[in-house]
Each structure stands twice: as structure tokens, then as C-alpha cells.
Amino acid sequence: MKLKLKPETLKAIDEVITHYPVKRSALLPLLHLIQEDTGWISTEAIEWIAAKLELQPINVYEVVTFYPMFRQKPIGRRHIKVCRTLSCALTGGYKVCDEFQKEFGCHTGEVSANGEVTIEFVECLASCGTGPVVMIDDDLHEKVDSAKVKELSAQIRAAANKGPNS
Ligand code: FES
């Protein structure tokens, strides 16, 4: 399968490569940009990056497997990121994460059975005064409590039932 990237990702990739005297130095930024776009780093992505930066695929693969932040499996259509850094941990971040896992019947890092959701712990989302903080796709949710978990989960399910164009 061919790697499909958004036009803005392709533009950002071409731009970021110009910031380095040698192309290969742009490897980490490219991996981040592609993971942001597609949710994970596929074999196609590894081959694509290798060709783009004039590297061997094994050189890219080694970096992907070295850093735990790069995902080697696809994620759900919706991505729930729960902050677990100190302020959020103290205000209930772990409980919030448990509640999301129960709502969708999956553990962190897995894809829910219907392919809809992946839940992950992340580090500080820069909103420490309003914890626990959760980011769903690109939207930040503050002071998330049990009621809010239920409300957000219901919204995710409602959107899924409406289909991909909702
Ligand atoms: S500690 Fe959670 S946003 Fe900073």
C-alpha cells in the first residue's frame, strides 16, 4: 500500500528538510510529522522516509524501534490522550484513564474492538492548573471528572454512529 500524506504534511516535510545541512538529520522531525498525520509509522512510511532522506530503510527502522514514542501499529480513528504528569496525576488523571478504558473496553495503547478509539497516557499537555487534562484528537478538555468522561465518551460514540463525515 502506498503512503498517503496530507498536502500540509508534505509541505511541512519539504520545509523542515531545508533546516538541516544534511538531509538525514531531518529523520526525527519527519517521523513526528508522519506520525501526526497517519497516527503511526508503517513499513510504507519507513520506506518513503528512507527514499526521501537518501537512507536505507533499516536506518529509519532502527530509529523507530529505539524511541518508544513512535507507534508501530495503527491507532483508532479517535485518539484519547490522558495527561499523567504530576499535576494531572494528583487531580485524578489515572482514574480518568481507567474510566475511559472501561467506557471503550480496551486498555491503553490498544484499538477498541470497533476500531474507533485508542487511549494513551501522555506527558504534560501544558495546562497543569486545570487538571486532569485530556486531549481528544486536537481538542483539549480540562478538569475532566467522571461525569465529563461519560459525556465525552457519549459524544465519541454518537459521532461514530453518524459515520466518518459527521
Ligand atoms: S501536568 Fe497535566 S497538563 Fe501539565
Record the strand order, biggest sheet: 2-1-3-4
Radius of gyration: 18 Å
**What kind of oligomer do you see?**
single chain
From the 3D coordinates, which CATH architecture of the largest domain would you assign? 3-Layer(aba) Sandwich
DSSP strand content: 5-15%
Number of strands: 4
**CATH level-3 fold name of the largest domain:** Glutaredoxin
| Shape estimate | elongated
Order of helices and strands: HHHHEHHEEEH
Name the features.
four-stranded mixed beta sheet, 7 helices, 4 strands, 166 residues, alpha+beta, binds FE2/S2 (inorganic) cluster, Glutaredoxin, Arc Repressor Mutant, subunit A
Give a short summary of the structure.
The chain has 166 residues and is α+β, with helices and mostly antiparallel strands. The protein is built from 7 helices and 4 strands, in the order ααααβααβββα. The longest helix is centred in the last third of the chain and has 17 residues, at 146-162.
How are the elements arranged and paired?
Blueprint: H1 7-17, H2 27-38, H3 43-53, H4 57-66, E1 78-83, H5 86-90, H6 93-104, E2 117-122, E3 134-136, E4 139-141, H7 146-162
Parallel strand pairs: 1-2
Antiparallel strand pairs: 1-3, 3-4
Helix pairs in contact: 1-2, 3-4, 6-7
The structure holds FE2/S2 (inorganic) cluster.
Structure in words:
By secondary structure, the protein is of the alpha+beta class. The protein folds into 2 domains: 60 residues, Arc Repressor Mutant, subunit A; 85 residues, Glutaredoxin, CATH 3.40.30. 47% of the residues lie in helices and 11% in strands. The protein contains 7 helices and 4 strands. It has a 4-stranded mixed sheet with strand order 2-1-3-4, with helices on one face. Strand 3 and strand 4 form a beta hairpin. Helix 1 runs antiparallel to helix 2, helix 3 packs across helix 4 and helix 6 runs parallel beside helix 7. The radius of gyration is 18 Å and the shape is elongated. The protein binds FE2/S2 (inorganic) cluster (FES).
